[in-house]
């Protein structure tokens, strides 16, 4: 008998807006893996296909994320258990504009 935890990702993947659900799960898991302290320094976490893009204003954090990219991706893929695996972590140093262009 299959466990619900094994079946649920496959069922969700076939639902409308499955990509959006996967993106939200990756964002949440990324925050859990990093810890809230470091995750709060990430201004933007975006998912585009199998690439996760992170923007942070902290150059030291950006450097560390790049160094740990392989480990982070492995943990994300293990914990999210999505049909499509995250393969690339792109990290950018910079500030994002606030909503409304202000």
How would you describe what is shown here?
The structure is a single chain. With 102 residues, the protein is α+β, with helices and mostly antiparallel strands. It has one domain: GMP Synthetase, Chain A, domain 3 (2-Layer Sandwich). It is 51% helix and 19% strand. It has a three-stranded mixed sheet with strand order 1-2-3, covered by helices on one side. Strand 1 (42-48) and strand 2 form a beta hairpin. The protein starts with a helix and ends in a 9-residue tail after the last strand.
List the helices and strands and how they pair.
Elements (H helix, E strand, L loop, with lengths): L3 H10 L4 H17 L1 H4 L2 E7 L2 E6 L2 H9 L1 H12 L7 E6 L9
Features:
single chain; 102 residues; alpha+beta; GMP Synthetase, Chain A, domain 3; three-stranded mixed beta sheet; 5 helices; 3 strands; 51% helix; 19% strand
Q: How many domains is the backbone divided into?
A: 1
* Order of neighbouring strands in the sheet with most strands: 1-2-3
| Count of alpha/pi helices | 5
* Main pleated-sheet profile: 3 strands, mixed
CA-based gyration radius:
15 Å
**Second rung of CATH, namely the architecture:** 2-Layer Sandwich
* Order of helix and strand elements from N to C terminus: HHHEEHHE
Which of globular, elongated, flat, extended, rod-shaped describes the shape?
Answer: elongated
Query: Spans of 5+ residues with little confidence (pLDDT < 50)?
Result: none
Question: What is the CATH C level class, in words?
Answer: Alpha Beta
- Summing up helix and strand content along with how strands pair, one would put the structural category as alpha+beta
Total beta strands: 3
């Amino acid at each position: 008998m299959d466990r619900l935890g094994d079946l649920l990702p496959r069922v969700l993947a076939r639902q409308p807006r499955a990509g959006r659900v996967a993106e939200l799960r990756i964002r949440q898991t990324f925050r859990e893996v990093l810890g809230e302290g470091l995750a709060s320094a990430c201004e933007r976490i975006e998912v585009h296909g199998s690439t996760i893009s992170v923007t942070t204003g902290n150059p030291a954090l950006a450097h560390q994320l790049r160094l740990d990219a392989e480990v982070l991706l492995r943990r994300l893929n293990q914990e999210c258990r999505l049909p499509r695996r995250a393969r690339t972590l792109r990290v950018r140093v910079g500030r994002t504009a606030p909503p409304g262009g202000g």
